[in-house]
Amino acid sequence: MTHSPAPTGPASTGPVPFGTRLRHAMDERGPLCVGIDPHGSLLTSWGLTDDLAGLERFSRTVVEALADRVAVLKPQSAFFERFGSRGVAVLETTVAEARAAGALVLMDAKRGDIGSTMAAYADTFLAPGAPLFSDALTVSPYLGYGSLSPAVDLARASGTGLFVLALTSNPEGAEVQHALRADGRNIGATMLARLARENAAEVAAGAALGSFGAVVGATLGDLSSYDLAIGGPLLAPGIGAQGATPADLPKVFGAAVRQVVPNVSRGVLRHGPDTAALRGAAERFADEVRDAVAAV
Ligand SMILES: O=c1ccn([C@@H]2O[C@H](COP(=O)(O)O)[C@@H](O)[C@H]2O)c(=O)[nH]1
User: Fold this and answer.
1) Which reaction does it catalyse (predicted)?
2) Is the C-beta atom of 215 inside 6 A of ligand 1?
3) Among the options 24, 110, 284, 290, which is catalytic?
4) What ipTM was estimated for this complex?
């Protein structure tokens, strides 16, 4: 199996930055990100066994159905890790096959640790040649934003990206993310401001989108009190099973809606295992997103 690095630009420029690749994919294919979340209940409803064979079949089916048409596929690492090392081996194959078929792969592993350990997580997912090399990784800044530095540095060097948990889609997130700092800003807003700084040089150099994104739930209602103009993408989970709809996106994100990468996992996956049905569900979400964004 080969593990291809990010595509390179002209010889002197190094790898094409993730944000540039993502913008291109969004323009070509639409902005939808579909999750690969092999819940035990989904394996069962697909008529599969909740074991390694079921995991393998489920993941391969999603890749075959969607990797040649959606901008981003987002494997949820937890559902692979629960099968131990052999589940992780399926994840490796899934990532490689999805990338080979043309999708960008966002690994949803939500890693975050002290800097020295963060460097090892970054090597795991963002170092070219690593078995789990992905185009981008979700990370948690709640050991302090600065603890993410090794991942930021490697992402810049390898043409990959990060999505930092800023304002998550789950109601429990508010306890941490809405907490007020001494300067009166809340923690979520502070993360957005950090990301804007991270993206500034890339955007100033002409990139349409920076490589450092925020996770901002589509479930959160009006976010006009936040500065969402971070120069990078906004991953918006929460559409479908968590209750948000594509039509909510303009209300939630306002003018920043064109930077939004809406994520749907169960809302698409529940239509499997039929490939045509999976494609149809993804297309319906993609159409609804396009209509909602066009209306802004
Ligand atoms: O704030 C967040 C961050 C990540 N997620 C992840 O997205 C998917 C959502 O799945 P659905 O089936 O569409 O609800 C899942 O992998 C979560 O871990 C999130 O939901 N919210």
Assistant:
1) orotidine 5'-phosphate + H(+) = UMP + CO2
2) yes
3) 110
4) 0.99
